[in-house]
């Protein structure tokens, strides 16, 4: 389940409209769907590219449920946002989210 705050953030940034058609948003769509297959794929991808082994839980909570992987959607267009079959685009999104998470982690570390 998504945190209430994350849902509100995603709906709010789109003005509670579907990011595709502009109708009233009723659901949150995942660009990379929350499947065990995708989560394991991301784990392998990060390990090969960055040499870091992330836990499946971390990938599910912090990457799959990251606001950048989510879109505000009407009931009709949820599938439209899915990029699971566009591998280059999906990898680019994972890179973007992973870099953001690392830079957040650095900020926390530097504050100590
Ligand atoms: Zn729509």
Strand content: 5-15%
Written as H for each helix and E for each strand, in order along the chain, the element string is HEHHEH
Number of helices: 4
Largest β-sheet summary: 2 strands, antiparallel
| Total tally of structural domains | 1
Note poorly predicted spans. Answer: none
Could you give the distance between the termini? 31 Å
Proportion in helices: 40-55%
Strand order of the largest sheet: 1-2
Give the total of beta strands.
2
Protein structure class = mainly alpha
Mean pLDDT: 94
Question: Bound compounds, please?
Answer: zinc ion
Question: Which overall shape is indicated by the principal axes computed on the Cα atoms?
Answer: globular
User: How is the quaternary structure best described?
Assistant: single chain
Q: Give Rg in angstroms.
A: 15 Å
Please, could you describe this protein's structure?
- By secondary structure, the chain is mainly α.
- It has one domain (4-111).
- It is built from four helices and two strands; from the N terminus they run H-E-H-H-E-H.
- Strands 1-2 form a two-stranded antiparallel sheet.
- Helix 2 (36-50) crosses helix 3.
- The structure holds zinc ion.
- Zinc ion (ZN) binds next to loops.
